[in-house]
Design goal:
The complex is a heterodimer of chains A (about 260) and B (about 300). Chain A has about 260 residues and is mainly α. Chain A is about 70% helix and about 0% strand. Chain A has one domain. In chain B, the strands form 2 sheets. A 4-stranded mixed beta sheet of chain B has the order 2-1-4-3, with no helix packed on it. Chain B has 2 domains: about 100 residues, no CATH class; about 120 residues, no CATH class. The chains are: A mainly alpha (about 260), B mainly alpha (about 300). The interface between A and B is small, with 8 and 12 residues. Chain B: Pathway: Lipid metabolism; fatty acid biosynthesis.
């Protein structure tokens, strides 16, 4: 649900700084008064979000340059492998932001979303070298890149209380395409990794051993893939619902100007 | 009465009989059920303030901060199920499931192992301990515990059973596996672990009995628990919830005895949950009793 989560990331309108205000769960949009982070926290979050926006722009530019240089869209992963790992892993900080309360999102939800991204980057793409040249990798990288650039700039502008309608629109509209695109890329990548995991017995432990434990990473990956079935529609339709609420709300405001 | 939730219905019914000032909340709930049979008393949460706490069944109307007319807010708690039912279901599962693995019922392990028996003593011992533990829990549910609440939300039974039954199957699978490896330090390790297990089971039972004796049958009174003549209850000097402390000890003992990682993980999961409960209970004690002993920690002496 990596693409889902971050592409989704709807709910809160303004005020959701940093990595917060992600998809799903509890809070009614805008219904509650939020204190917001203090001035020091706000400054930190603005810097954080600007850095992340820049990072994902670097990845975007890297993809374009590599495509132009190579003349084909295959195996572009290698060109942006390092910044992708760095900036996606850096998103773990967002869990901390929620935990210490400077971002008003649920720690559990944010953890789930960030961990699923980190899982795909490290436990699948990095670990199974053979899938790195797959086109499915490009599919989710592009989806994530566009999503994150918009999301982090959304947060930056929100924190500065100056959110251009275009960014809000983009965040609540582009997911319609980006989300399924990202999910497809992720699922295809995991699927492509399966035979290599089986062959190498990757991250698996079998009996007998002195801790009387076993783990089959192949079966685990299949379970992960199956979990997309209930999760994807829920998140997707939640996003659609949020879109209707947020964008129509803005329309009403415009009428009164 | 006004209904909370999506539709805020201001409901005044001429059919609603006059309520006596000395009526209890329980009686009012019964009256409400008469006109709204789908909301039986256990499903009703009545409050004086929509955002306030639920009123207790024992509260008397005239003793509440209301004038000549009282406005009560109602919330539907959803389908309810009794605590006893939940406990009995969630504990019978592991008892039965573990035995399926112990007797190596077909389709669990390879066909050549069907109905075979392990050659390791510790495996038989583990079965006895695990079974004893859940039989004890069932008997305590039937004869010992005195519950504050009659019911809990229905969805809890699915959540709880998944947890208990799932972990029981996971642990039982490895302990009774034909390729099971007995503990590294052999009989010494097993004996020590068994001692820990037995002591903690006795301790846990002693605490349950002590808590039962605090509360007369059919009542919901709450008192500060104190050590009794039974040495196992002396742990009350140091913790608020020694029953949880002993429960942790039992599972640690079981984990050492079987040297099985899934058991350790189950113990960890239980520890996290019990710590949350212990902290909550400790906080309630502190709030309710001014003279609560200051030395006590929620679950681990001096630490947590």
């Amino acid at each position: 649900m990596a693409a889902a989560a971050a592409t989704a990331a709807a709910t809160k309108g303004n005020g959701g700084g940093g990595g917060g205000a992600r998809a799903g769960a509890g809070e009614a949009s805008g219904a509650r008064k939020r204190r917001g982070p203090g001035p020091l926290a706000t400054a930190y979050l603005v810097i954080y979000n600007v850095v992340m926006t820049a990072g994902w722009l670097v990845i975007a530019v890297g993809l374009v340059r590599a495509y132009l240089a190579k003349g084909s869209y295959h195996s572009l992963y290698y060109a942006i492998e390092k910044p992708l790992k760095f900036f996606q892993t850096g998103a773990l900080l967002e869990i901390l932001h929620c935990a210490i309360g400077i971002v008003p999102s649920s720690v559990v939800l944010t953890s789930f979303q960030v961990m699923s991204r980190v899982f795909l980057i490290w436990a699948v793409t990095h670990s199974v070298k053979e899938v790195q040249s797959e086109d499915s990798v490009l599919l989710f990288v592009i989806a994530w890149t566009i999503t994150e650039i918009i999301r982090y700039s959304f947060y930056t502008f929100s924190l500065l209380n100056h959110l251009p309608y275009l960014i809000k629109w983009a965040r609540y509209t582009l997911f319609i395409v980006l989300y399924p695109m990202g999910v497809s890329g992720e699922l295809l990548t995991i699927y492509a990794a399966l035979p290599f995991v089986r062959q190498a017995g990757l991250y698996s432990i079998s009996l007998p051993n002195k801790y009387n434990f076993s783990f089959d990473y192949y079966a685990f990956l299949i379970l992960i893939m199956i979990s997309y079935i209930p999760l994807f529609p829920q998140l997707y339709f939640h996003m659609i619902h949020q879109r209707r609420k947020v964008l129509s709300h803005t329309e009403e405001h415009k009428k009164f100007e | 009465m006004q209904r909370l939730g999506r539709s805020c219905v201001s409901w005044t019914s001429p059919r609603f009989p006059q309520v006596e000032p000395h009526a209890t909340i329980a009686e009012i709930k019964n009256l409400f059920t008469k006109s709204h049979p789908q909301w039986y008393p256990a499903r009703q949460s009545l409050r004086l303030d929509p955002k306030g706490k639920s009123l207790k069944d024992e509260d008397v109307l005239q003793k509440l901060p209301v004038g000549t007319t009282a406005t009560l807010y109602f919330r539907d708690l959803g389908a309810q199920i009794s605590w006893v039912t939940v406990f009995l279901t969630e504990y019978t599962g592991p008892l039965f499931i573990y035995l399926l693995f112990y007797f190596r019922v077909p389709f669990i392990y390879g066909h050549k192992y069907d109905f075979t028996s392990s050659r390791h003593t510790v495996v038989h011992l583990a079965c006895i301990c695990h079974s004893f533990h859940y039989v004890k829990r069932l008997l305590e549910t039937l004869f010992v515990h005195r519950f504050s609440h009659g019911t809990m939300p229905l969805r809890n039974i699915f959540k709880n059973c998944t947890y208990y039954w799932g972990f029981a199957a996971w642990m039982a699978y490895y302990i009774n596996h034909p390729l099971y490896t007995p503990p590294t330090y052999g009989a010494q390790q097993v004996k020590l672990a068994l001692a820990i297990f037995v002591i903690c089971q006795l301790g846990n039972f002693s605490i349950h009995m002590a808590l039962r004796d605090l509360r007369p049958a059919g009542s919901k009174t709450r008192k500060i628990p104190y050590p009794t003549k039974n040495p196992f209850t002396w742990l009350f000097l140091l913790v608020s919830c020694p029953n949880y402390t002993y429960e942790m000890g039992s599972w640690i003992g079981f984990a050492i005895m079987t040297q099985c990682l899934p058991v350790a993980l189950f113990s960890l999961a239980g520890f996290i949950q019990m710590t949350i409960w212990a902290k909550g209970k400790h906080r309630s004690y502190l709030k309710e009793f001014r003279d609560y002993p200051p030395l006590r920690m929620p679950i681990i002496p001096f630490l947590l």
